[in-house]
Specification:
The chain has 193 residues and is of the alpha+beta class. It has one domain. It is 18% helix and 42% strand. The protein has four helices and twelve strands; from the N terminus they run αββαββββββββββαα. Strands 3, 4, 5, 6, 7, 8, 9, 10 and 12 form a nine-stranded antiparallel sheet that branches. Strands 1-2-11 form a three-stranded mixed sheet. Strand 1 and strand 2 form a beta hairpin.
């Protein structure tokens, strides 16, 4: 069994449909999110475009100019395009409840997964962190979790703020140590106890 269907079933338990009031994801540690991601990057949103994917429906293609790479083979200064669920194509609008919302010029840390050859932010808004500076000029990340995203499971969800250097160290640790923290993920992927 491939990792993709198992992980999608675990991470996104339910997307918005009809009269649904929330989407649900399993809460994961920063390290497990990094393990599931192809890329973990900081960048500035430089563009968005609604697209109509034949299988996934309406999505938004988000273009992020990369300023820092924590995981993956991207380079600073390059752009990466990933997709969010929901968007607008012409007059048709589709909303995925609990999905991240991006704005042009926004600086964000994004955990990006690959699904069937396409890039998506991991776990709706769970995989997106806003970047800001504190009074001392340190860069901090705060999870951009939407109120309409329900997070379930035993893992306590960290909201931040987290210093960017600490975040990079944690992502690096996850890359060097691929064993998942989450018992749910370990069981689904046959990693045992």
């Amino acid at each position: 069994m491939s990792r993709r269907p198992v992980l999608m079933a675990i991470v996104v338990l339910g997307l918005a449909a009809g009269a649904a009031q929330a989407s649900t994801v399993v809460g994961l540690s920063v390290e497990d999110q990094a393990r599931l991601s192809r890329y973990v990057v900081i960048g500035e949103v430089i563009g968005q475009k609604g697209v109509d994917h034949p299988a996934q429906g309406i999505e938004t293609a988000v273009t992020l100019k990369v300023t820092e790479v924590m995981k993956g083979d991207l380079r600073p200064g390059r752009a990466v395009v990933f997709h969010t669920r929901g968007g607008q194509v012409g007059e048709v609008i589709s909303e995925a409840i609990g999905e991240a919302v991006f704005k042009k010029g926004q600086k964000a840390l994004v955990f990006i997964e690959e699904i069937d050859g396409r890039l998506y932010n991991l776990g709706l808004s769970m995989g997106v962190w806003d970047i800001h500076e504190d009074a001392a000029g340190r860069q901090l990340a705060t999870r951009a979790l939407r109120d309409d995203l329900e997070v379930v499971g035993a893992e306590a969800v960290e909201h931040g703020p987290v210093d960017i250097h600490e975040m990079a160290a944690r992502v690096g640790y996850a890359v060097r140590n691929p064993r998942f923290d989450s018992e749910i993920l370990r069981a689904a992927l046959g990693q045992g106890r």
